[in-house]
């Protein structure tokens, strides 16, 4: 039965990424787009690929403090992602609410509603930090396959 | 009996089945790698598409509540099987000639329509509004490009048939043999409009960027594929990889089958032609263009490829 673990190792080389914007200020989203899209940080070489549909995703990047208005949509979207999946919270917003923490309109910390596996702090975090977060997420994902 | 076994082997092993699957996925890997290099990125490993398929095997398949479960889960299978059979119909000069019972251009044309139809059925069975948009776009696009394809095929068949002293012949083996004897159609000025029309057609048929309107992930979130996940999504990826092999192989068989005798030489020449067709017609086109709107694509196809195809048919019949 040595074959299955082998296939699992291969499978971890193809993490597909989906971004959920839970009311972020867009700073983190720009940073995520930059991380993957510009030649300098090219994460396609890790096999990553942004996908348009939550049903294709393996690793979810969530940014933003989870505002009251998007809560239901975000939870529903999270449910749509097939197991095994890993969640990465990008920015300080999902951790504590960041600069929005005292607002009546935000529900941060986000892990009251969604299990978060990796936190990438920063406002916004550097691309290298996001890549490190994704790499951590891949290691966690390997355990869950 | 023995030729049934030969057909079965052709469908399951070479040039269909295992070979076409591996070749199609490898082509996709090369395509992504070259694209990355052209954008001065490192790019994914060459075997990335294989990794993706294996990964999808580990994921769970979800069926949306609004979907018709049977249709939703089994239509992609139809597409994969159709493409496996189609791959066994396409001759490779001096390497593989399809059995006379199946090697027919008309059969191939019908089989080539199936992936489009599968996408439409899958999109509507998923019960998602994005799938429905994908459905209508796929249908419009198919109406636009199937016409030119049929005319191109007719032009080739008539040219071959008249050359052989008859009217039209749809046997792919005859088409290849005729060009082996009389020179490839690519160098025959009478056939140039048909060649040009085919060059417009095949990027659309394999669904790459200017024409991937039904699956545009930035507008309709991958359209018909939106609701698919796990192994069933892998079937769609396999179907499109196989389709690429079939469409490019068809182009080679129709217009430029010239190759030296002998299995190794013939196969190497075929590989080179496939690589050129893919890099020029798919990778370069995909990178240098933006996606068209569905109405633009529709009008585009009804204008240039259709005109060229009609012209080629007229020229072939008259000359
Ligand atoms: S962490 Fe900072 S940059 Fe990121 S969404 Fe919050 S406020 Fe914006």
Describe this structure in words.
The complex is a heterodimer of chains A (145) and B (319). Chain A has helices at residues 3-11, 27-37, 71-80, 93-96, 127-144; strands spanning 16-21, 49-50, 59-63, 86-90, 118-120. Chain A has 145 residues and is of the alpha/beta class. Chain A has one domain (14-144): Rossmann fold. Chain A has a five-stranded parallel beta sheet with strand order 2-1-3-4-5, sandwiched between helices. In chain A, helix 4 (93-96) links the parallel strand 4 and strand 5. In chain A, 46% of the residues are buried. By secondary structure, chain B is an all-alpha fold. Chain B has helices at 2-12, 17-38, 48-58, 69-89, 105-125, 129-163, 172-182, 192-206, 230-255, 263-288, 294-318. In chain B, helix 3 (48-58) runs antiparallel to helix 9 (230-255) and helix 9 crosses helix 10 (263-288). Chain B is globular and about 60 Å long. The interface between A and B is medium-sized, with 27 and 32 residues. Iron/sulfur cluster binds next to helix 2 of chain A.
């Amino acid at each position: 039965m040595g074959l299955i673990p082998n296939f699992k190792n291969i499978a971890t080389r193809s993490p597909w990424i989906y971004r959920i914007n839970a009311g972020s200020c867009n700073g983190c989203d720009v940073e995520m787009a930059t991380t993957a899209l510009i030649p300098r940080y090219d994460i396609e070489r890790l096999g990553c690929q942004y996908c348009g549909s939550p049903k294709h995703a393996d690793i979810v990047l969530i940014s933003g403090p989870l505002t009251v208005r998007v809560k239901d949509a975000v939870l529903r979207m999270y449910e749509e992602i097939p197991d095994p999946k890993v969640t990465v919270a990008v920015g300080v917003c999902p951790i504590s609410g960041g600069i929005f923490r005292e607002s009546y309109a935000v529900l941060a910390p986000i892990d009251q509603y969604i299990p978060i596996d990796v936190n990438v702090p920063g406002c916004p975090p550097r691309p290298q930090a996001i890549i490190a977060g994704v790499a951590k997420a891949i290691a966690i994902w390997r355990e869950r396959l | 009996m023995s030729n049934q076994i030969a057909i079965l082997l052709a469908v399951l092993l070479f040039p269909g089945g295992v070979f076409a699957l591996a070749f199609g996925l490898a082509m996709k890997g090369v395509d992504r790698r070259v694209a990355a290099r052209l954008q001065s990125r490192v790019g994914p490993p060459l075997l990335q598409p294989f990794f993706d398929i294996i990964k999808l095997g580990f994921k769970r398949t979800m069926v949306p509540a609004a979907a018709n479960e049977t249709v939703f889960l089994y239509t992609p299978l139809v597409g994969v099987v159709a493409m496996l059979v189609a791959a066994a119909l396409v001759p490779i000069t001096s390497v593989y000639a399809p059995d006379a019972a199946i090697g027919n251009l008309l059969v191939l044309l019908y089989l080539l329509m199936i992936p489009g139809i599968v996408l439409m059925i899958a999109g509507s069975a998923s019960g998602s509004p994005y799938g429905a948009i994908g459905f209508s776009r796929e249908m419009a696009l198919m109406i636009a490009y199937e016409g030119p394809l049929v005319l191109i095929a007719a032009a080739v068949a008539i040219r071959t048939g008249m050359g052989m002293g008859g009217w039209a012949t749809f046997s792919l083996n005859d088409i290849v043999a005729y060009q082996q004897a009389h020179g490839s159609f690519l160098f025959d000025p009478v056939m140039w409009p048909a060649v040009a029309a085919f060059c417009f057609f095949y990027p659309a048929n394999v669904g790459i960027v200017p024409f991937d309107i039904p699956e545009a992930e930035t507008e309709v979130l991958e359209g018909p594929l939106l609701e698919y996940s796990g192994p069933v999504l892998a079937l769609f990826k396999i179907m499109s990889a196989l389709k690429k092999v079939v469409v490019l192989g068809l182009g080679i068989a129709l217009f430029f089958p010239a190759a030296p005798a002998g299995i190794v030489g013939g196969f190497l020449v075929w590989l080179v032609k496939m690589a050129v067709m893919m890099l020029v017609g798919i990778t370069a086109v995909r990178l240098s263009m933006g996606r068209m709107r569905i109405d633009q694509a529709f009008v585009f196809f009804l204008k240039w490829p259709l005109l060229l195809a009609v012209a080629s048919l007229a020229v072939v019949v008259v000359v």
